[in-house]
Amino acid sequence: MVIEYLTGILIFVTTIYVYLTHKMAKATESSVQAIKDQSEAMYRPYVIVEPFVRINTPFICLRIKNTGQTPALNLTLKIDRDFYQFSKKDKNFKDFDAFNTQIDSLPPNAELLFVLAQGWVILGDKADPKITPKQFEILSEYQYQNKSVSENHKIDLRPYGASEGAKDLVAEELEKIRKILEKKS
Fold it and tell me: Of 115 and 23, which is predicted with more confidence?
């Protein structure tokens, strides 16, 4: 009879041990997956699309950049509406190569820079939103490590209306020196 009790206790302890071992294996599996996800997030490509005002100019520009650690492969960019650079009918962004052909690889830190127009052309009282819209979207689709990414970038230029572009103090001082030298010549 003692043997039966000891056997029962052994079965109970073994059951608890199996249960706890199973829980530890699941927790370890979750940790490994979290580490894999973190590693992928650190090393994957990230294509960003952002407007900016070029230093010392009235130009509003568009930057498309891979800020990630690996190339964005088979990148396609699509703009959702017509945008005519500098309001010129023969310069529609939809016709630019970057927006209608696939880019085989956009390496890390590579960037495409496009001048949209002067601020008053886009945001002024006489601006035509059908020619230079204040809001538009750019869809970027790319691949890495057999994974596909599709991101929609909403561009809103309206806040730039009351904004002033950054000034390069060194360039301003050099301009002052140039003007002084021109007067002496």
Answer: 115
